[in-house]
UniProtKB/TrEMBL annotation:
Gene name for this UniProt entry: LOC115470042
PANTHER family named in the record: HEPARANASE, INACTIVE HEPARANASE-2
Record-level Gene Ontology MF annotations: hydrolase activity, acting on glycosyl bonds
Organism: Microcaecilia unicolor
Pfam families: Glyco_hydro_79n
GO biological process: extracellular matrix organization
N-terminal signal peptide: none
Protein name per Swiss-Prot or TrEMBL: Inactive heparanase-2-like
InterPro entries, A to Z: GH (IPR017853), Glyco_hydro_79 (IPR005199)
GO-annotated cellular components: extracellular matrix; extracellular space; membrane
Segments passing through the bilayer: none
Family in the record: Belongs to the glycosyl hydrolase 79 family.
Length: 399
């Protein structure tokens, strides 16, 4: 879950939050308030110990984070916190966690910085010098576009999609300087900042940026991507005010069910230049490949999942070769449903609208089986998942 700032957070609210997370089979990462500062600008942790002791008494399994976008603290409360001081604050928090048996080995994440501009990179550098070994993963945030002025075509600009790759590289350079191999999380991501854009961030069009984020992050070694948000915050959410799934929810569900964590390399015949990570067959046709999720009982180990983004205004054809040529392929093609086109808040899977069966039951996500050797035809401005069955790929047989 994303970090928030709380002025007053009573015990009963923590109970409700934890019970919701626990019942949903999720894990809670609780963001502590880093804006409470003493006159010497050190972190005021006076009320944190009571929170830790209370949650420990309930045996709540919680991970922790301190603050949110520390590069913006001057705008929030007129006080700047540099990376060195923030690192000391994290060391203080780690010491507090270790003093409580329940949380002596709890995970701690941070510093949850914003987009890596020059001042943010300097903050991260100072933090890593002091506390790089204190946290279990480095967290940062990425938003593609200003939600106050975004237009539908902005969500399909390849230049915009590629900004993530450059920013990942900047973060990795700093982290690997101090703690090579340290896990890096994209700790907060949305299509647009300023709470997103109504009738854009919550529509089919936003899926191009979202799926590209997942593919590019996996390709470049980001361990975890946290979506901002699930419900009720602006227009980057996954479900609407009535808890009806929006297009990015269905996209996320397909991704979780079909895509495993192991990333595969792709060779494309006829490609004239070596692609940067996440850029395959020109900029407007992006193909990512993973081992199929081991948790999906419908596919045996060794199967491969491709997911494809076609930003062209014409259909594109892909022919599988080699050992993939004679295999059955299951197609999961997501397209907008309704007259709104790309700005639709409903989607269809292989031509069938996706809607909840009832308040608690998801519909069956049925694939369309393509005969062996058939060319994959990707319609214009669409997203598709393709599971190549029974390939028995060596890289995908084992975890």
């Amino acid at each position: 879950m994303q970090a928030f700032f709380f002025v007053f957070f009573p015990a009963r609210s923590l109970d409700k939050l934890y019970n919701f997370v626990d019942c949903s089979g999720l894990h809670l990462i609780f963001g502590l308030n880093a804006l409470r500062r003493k006159p010497d600008n050190t972190w005021n942790s006076s009320n944190v110990l009571s929170l830790l002791k209370y949650s420990a008494s309930k045996k709540y399994n919680i991970s922790w984070e301190l603050g949110n976008e520390p590069n913006n603290y001057r705008a929030l409360n007129g006080r700047t916190v540099n990376g060195s001081q923030l690192g000391k604050d994290y060391i203080q928090l780690r010491s507090m966690l270790q003093s409580i048996r329940t949380y002596s080995r709890a995970n701690l994440y941070g510093p949850n910085i914003g987009r890596p501009r020059k001042n943010v990179i300097a903050l991260l550098d100072g933090f890593m010098k002091v506390a790089g070994n204190t946290v279990d993963a480095i967290t940062w945030q990425h938003y593609y576009i200003d939600g106050r002025v975004a237009k539908v075509m902005d969500f399909m600009k390849t230049r915009l999609l590629d900004t993530l790759s450059d920013q990942i590289g900047k973060i990795q350079k700093v982290v690997n300087t101090y703690t090579p191999g340290k896990k890096i999380w994209l700790g907060g991501v949305g299509t647009a900042w300023a709470r997103g854009t109504n009738n854009l961030s919550d529509t089919y069009a936003a899926g191009f940026l979202w799926l590209n984020t997942l593919g590019m992050s996996a390709n470049q070694g980001i361990h975890v991507v946290i979506r901002h948000s699930f419900f009720a915050h602006g227009y980057n959410h996954l479900v609407d005010q009535n808890f009806n799934p929006l297009p990015d929810y269905w996209l996320s569900l397909l991704y979780k069910r079909l895509v495993g964590p192991k990333v595969l390399a792709i060779h494309v015949a006829g490609l004239q230049r070596k692609p940067r990570p996440g850029r395959v067959i020109r900029d407007k046709l992006r193909i990512y490949a993973h081992c199929t999720s081991y948790q999906n009982i419908n596919y045996v180990r060794g199967s491969i999942t491709l997911y494809i983004i076609n930003l062209h205004r014409s259909r594109k054809k892909i022919k599988l070769t080699g050992t993939l040529r004679d295999k059955i392929v299951h197609q999961y093609l997501l397209q907008p449903f309704g007259s709104e086109g790309l700005q639709s808040k409903s989607v269809q899977l292989n031509g069938q609208p996706l809607v909840m069966v009832d308040d608690e039951t998801l519909p069956e996500l049925k694939p369309r089986a393509l005969r062996p050797g058939r060319t994959l035809v990707i319609p214009p401005l669409t997203i598709g998942f393709y599971v190549i069955k029974n390939v028995n790929a060596v890289a995908c047989r084992y975890r």
